[in-house]
């Protein structure tokens, strides 16, 4: 859990995903369309991915992707898309320092 906290606090946007997840790809594309370069951890491709997945599960995140903005857990694809539809996502990204306007 300490490693997870350190990782998410070091970058403005961190996405934990699996390479085969289409929802993860969609969320990564959304951030890229904004001009945001998120830090992405493909849990099925990294050596300690299983350990990270268990730590995320301890936070109540059992599905991928899991998105942190400004060091805070935002949620998964549904939460990100909801924030986008409410026009709240872009201001969050600006506050986190992930996007400059």
Describe this structure in words.
- The protein is α+β, with helices and mostly antiparallel strands and 101 residues long.
- The protein is built from 5 helices and 4 strands; from the N terminus they run αβαβαββαα.
- It has helices at 2-10, 22-34, 49-58, 77-85, 89-95, and strands spanning 13-17, 39-42, 66-69, 72-75.
- It has a 4-stranded mixed beta sheet, with helices on both faces.
- The longest helix has 13 residues, at 22-34.
- The chain is globular and about 35 Å long.
- The model has no long low-confidence stretch (mean pLDDT 94).
Structural class: alpha+beta
How far apart the termini lie comes to 34 Å
Main sheet specs: 4 strands, mixed
Helix content: 40-55%
Tally the helices: what do you get?
5
The average pLDDT value, as a whole number, equals: 94
- Poorly predicted runs are none
SSE pattern: HEHEHEEHH
Number of strands: 4
Share in β-strands: 15-25%
Rg estimate, integer Å: 13 Å
Shape: globular
Overview in brief:
The protein has helices spanning 2-10, 22-34, 49-58, 77-85, 89-95, and strands at residues 13-17, 39-42, 66-69, 72-75. It has 101 residues and is of the alpha+beta class.
Jot down its keywords.
single chain, 101 residues, alpha+beta, 4-stranded mixed sheet, 5 helices, globular
